[in-house]
Amino acid sequence: MATLYEQVAREITQQIQQGLYKSGDRLPGVRQLSRHFKVSVSTIVQAHQLLEDHGTIEAKPRSGFYITTTFLERPKVPTISSPSSKPQLVTGQALVLNLVKATSRANILQLGTAVPHHNFLPVKGMQRSFSKILREKSEQCAGYAFPPGNADLRQQISRRMLLAGHPCSPDDIVITNGCQESLTLALRAIAKPGDIIAIESPAFYGLLQVIDALGMKALEIPTDPEHGISLSALQLALEQWPIKAVALVPNFSNPLGYCMSDERKKLLVEMANKYQTTLIEDDIYGELSFDQSRPCSLKHYDTTDSVISCSSFSKSLLPGLRIGWIIPGRFFNQIEYQKYVTNLASPTLSQLAVADFLEHGGYDRYLRHVREEYKNQVNRVIQSIGKYFPGGTKVTQPKGGFVIWVELPNNIDAMQLHALALAEEISIAPGPMFSATQKYKNFIRLSCAQPWNHQLEQGLIHLGRLAYSLQSN
Q: Please, are residues 463 and 405 in contact by the beta-carbon 8 Å criterion?
């Protein structure tokens, strides 16, 4: 539930959006707002601080607070995608490895990979859990936690699944080395080389890599940046092609950031059941809702075991832990065995430490804090794009997570922008990485999980200048 000052800040924001205040207008004084909202002066001060963090208002010395010019310049949202209507082999994914390698370079501004800056991560809290486990369970740490994985961790994950509307037993869960391995195990269990997998478009490039590595074909489905995968287009595809699985990120999708409505989730699960295909749900961003409420999983509507749910703690805790999980349903035995023959087990120490962190409330405390931080960062980056990038640039408006999808004017080549930016120590993810056929030539994805400082602001300004320079060529 929102605090009092958050409610005040939200009401002021709504008043601005409704036109009560215009760009550059001065807000009423603190005491006047205190009387208007019937709250204390300190509550108004806190609301002002929050609005400043969001970039909605700015303070002028000895003058008061004013509506920022950038607040009303938020870019429009990209339109629904229009990918090829035929299954395709995945191409061009070698670029991803180059992007990942760039993350190890010193002093580079990391806007390309969806990896949170260490300032956003609960490093100290996890250090305490690691120390405790090494001290109290050293013998257990020395051995393998064979599939399905550590029982304590599976117990904690099963409790969190209740928040996603999916009651499940710890015995329904298999621990993996991150969500990427979960997706790989799911596709191996369902399909064989040459089979067709329907995906969102644009799609998470990690999923495209898995489809490519397994020799399968991707069928890209038009996807709306605000509502998600087109159910009508998916139905047509299911009627036309022998689709083995539909893989998607329904909660705060990467790269679009949308959250599918409950009604659409229900219809999607019913459609999968009707056409006897399997849904593979990547729910890795599900815990990162900006409004503090956890959206439900597709499994909430699954009455026929047609959904395989995959997730990990890589985005919502510590990426380096490499702890994920999969809820395979009727494919449990097959996936448990495949996990074993692939790499025996996931790291025991990491599993025990995460279980301890969850059990003692550290994870929930961290989430309450970081959700608000990501919301602020996303808003600031979007506003900066509206201010510094060429006219006509469009940006998604995510409700959770920390990535945004940017549509540049048609005459700006994302691959050229990527090369120019990297030479200037700025990493971005060019749009062709998110398509099986290298579509989205004028799109980029940016990660907002970087602390707001001079380097980030100057980096966005410089990125905008580079985009302008390509537009004029």
A: no
